[in-house]
Design brief:
heterodimer, A: 284 residues, mainly alpha, MetI-like fold, two-stranded antiparallel sheet, 77% helix, globular, B: 293 residues, 13 helices
Chain lengths: 284, 293
């Protein structure tokens, strides 16, 4: 009896320990970035430029860099993923669809650093030649490669949603003589709205959290980008680049602000997905 | 007429996206293989040192990528070794002991942890090292801290796969042992856990892959460009993905660049093998679920 209680307490302990990690990370960011939050300095930090020589340590350029790379990569990845999942779930013949799905699953296993590496030696020179501007390290290059990184997961979420429509709906559409494309447009897509939205939000989180692609391909300039051919620095890349600085400097403290912003963004996205999921349950 | 036009448009768009995705994949992998496979040789791994000397640690490998491979290996072993017991125990708790609100409360935290960007986990590991340094002078960002941070990174995946594997066990299996008088813990230890091993194993293997490929976490927690094979848990180390990143930005000559391509191919092969094994085990689990119906 004794032993049983110990083991079961162990299970509970592990569960609590793991859950508390999520809270502990937030507390650490808040605690170490604390000097920044006194006197409402935090909001100023989010809206001012970065210029250490003049005493400006704002992370606004990084925020702008992150948002523009994430937005642009979703602009490429979302239609691509939607099209590819339609192909896999509805349009392609079974054998080819299976092959595509296997390939997409394999793609989720490719290390991000490899996408970055190929990007540096293949995509960046290509962009440089094509637009004849600068080094080729730009928001455009980073967003193109990032869309390759996030597409596989998005496609898998979409195909799972498409394939989870009730058999009776599918059969009803078939019985009315709908073609596969008509079934897709009038039955599958309306039914999967919620799943598509959830997949999109999860991909935003993934794109925002990615460090390597932006670090390797976006050029890391600390100015607010003006066009998609400009170089930019993301919040994640900022953390990776500043970590070597002096521990006591304000410069160093800003990375905790960047970490905090990333944490709050991704956690809110997770909450949003949960809320969508819950309302979805009620409606059905 | 309009209906027909829309149909053709959607069909061609879907085919176009699918083929675009496949061809980009083909170009990326093909580029890497064409550039990287010719560089694969023993000297890529061992440099000028003879393999026997290098493996017996009699001589340091200076040119080759053996230290990076050893670093990644140790890192994976430590991180997964630390995360697995905790992840499995938490997964068992979540699947078998928690109900209702408590369960969704816990899973919310795991989802948030899974969503935290890896660089933020790395920053957390780094802060942890700095905080511990105040008490124990020997602790700097090092192999141990990196492994700990990576363990945090993969913990939610392990918990979720364990939970899913346990919950997918059919009711007739789940109820047999208790009906014969087994306690809940006996049921878990002798029936449910062994039954869910393929699913759990695939989760562990995916966690290994995640640890082997992650660069952002280790970048902040102690990886360096040149350290040799790590001598202790508290020393700096090299790792394969960081080496690839480092070469892409800092290579000095074409030889170094070549080793970068070689290292990328090796990392790709390692991850592909891990992934295929996990996939095979997962399919076994799926088959079992299908037979249930």
């Amino acid at each position: 009896m004794e032993k049983t209680t110990i083991v079961e307490t162990g299970f509970l302990g592990a569960a609590v320990l793991s859950a508390s990690l999520a809270a502990l990370i937030l507390i650490f960011m808040l605690f170490l970035g604390f000097p920044l939050f006194r006197g409402g300095y935090f909001l100023t930090l989010l809206t001012t430029p970065w210029n250490p020589d003049k005493g400006f340590f704002g992370i606004y350029p990084m925020l702008a860099g992150t948002l523009s790379i994430v937005f642009l990569s979703l602009c490429w990845a979302f239609p691509l993923s939607l099209g590819a999942s339609a192909l896999i779930s509805v349009i392609a013949p079974t054998g080819f669809a299976k092959f595509c799905k296997k390939t997409v699953q394999m793609l989720t296993g490719i290390p991000t650093v490899i996408y970055g590496f190929v990007g540096v030696f293949l995509l960046v020179p290509f962009i440089r030649e094509m637009f004849a501007s600068g080094s080729g390290m730009s928001i455009l290059s980073a967003s193109l490669m990032l869309s390759m990184v996030i597409s596989p997961t998005m496609i898998l979420i979409f195909t799972d949603t498409f394939e989870s429509i009730p058999a009776s709906y599918s059969a009803a559409a078939d019985a009315l003589g709908a073609s596969p494309v008509q079934k897709l447009v009038h039955v599958i897509l309306p039914y999967s709205r919620r799943g598509i939205f959830a997949g999109l939000i999860l991909s935003v989180g993934r794109a925002m959290g990615d460090t390597l692609i932006a670090l390797m391909l976006a050029g890391n300039a600390v100015a607010v980008p003006g066009s998609i051919l400009d170089s930019a620095r993301t919040l994640t890349a900022h953390i990776a680049l500043v970590i070597a600085a002096d521990f006591d400097s304000i410069e160093f403290k800003t990375i905790f602000a960047a970490g905090l912003v990333l944490y709050v963004f991704t956690a809110s996205l997770i909450l949003l997905v949960r809320i969508i999921g819950r309302t979805g349950m009620k409606n059905r | 007429m309009k209906e027909r036009f829309i149909e053709i448009f959607i069909k061609s768009f879907a085919w176009l996206s699918g083929l675009l995705l496949l061809s980009v994949t083909f170009v990326i992998i093909g580029f890497l293989l064409v550039k990287g496979v010719p560089t694969l040789s023993l000297s890529l791994i061992f440099g000028d040192t003879s393999p026997a000397d290098a493996l017996l640690l009699r001589r340091q490998v200076l040119e080759g990528i053996l230290p990076a491979m050893a670093g990644t290996g140790l890192l994976v072993l430590l991180a997964v070794g630390m995360a697995t017991p905790v992840g499995l125990a938490a997964g068992i708790y979540l699947a078998e002991y928690s109900r209702g609100n408590l369960k969704s409360f816990f899973s919310l935290f795991y989802d948030i942890l899974a969503g935290v960007p890896s660089i933020v986990i790395g920053l957390f590991g780094f802060s942890l090292a700095i905080s511990l340094h105040h008490y124990v002078k020997e602790i700097y960002p090092c192999l141990l801290i990196s492994a700990l941070a990576l363990a945090f990174l993969v913990l939610p995946y392990l918990i979720r796969t364990t939970q899913f594997a346990l919950e997918s066990i059919p009711a007739e299996v789940r109820l047999t042992a208790p009906a014969l008088g087994a306690t809940k813990l006996q049921n878990i230890a002798y029936v449910l856990f062994p039954r869910s091993l393929p699913g759990i194993a695939s989760g562990v293997i995916l966690a290994i892959g995640r640890c082997a490929e992650d660069t952002a976490v280790i970048m902040l927690t102690g990886v360096v460009a040149a350290a040799g094979i790590p001598g202790s848990l508290l020393s700096a180390y090299e790792a394969l993905p960081f080496y690839i990143y480092y070469i892409s930005s800092q290579y000095r000559n074409s030889y170094e660049l070549q080793t970068g391509f070689g290292a990328a191919v090796i990392l790709l092969i390692i991850c592909a093998c891990l992934f295929l094994t996990a996939f095979y085990l997962k399919n076994q689990l799926m088959n079992r679920m299908l037979y249930r119906r």
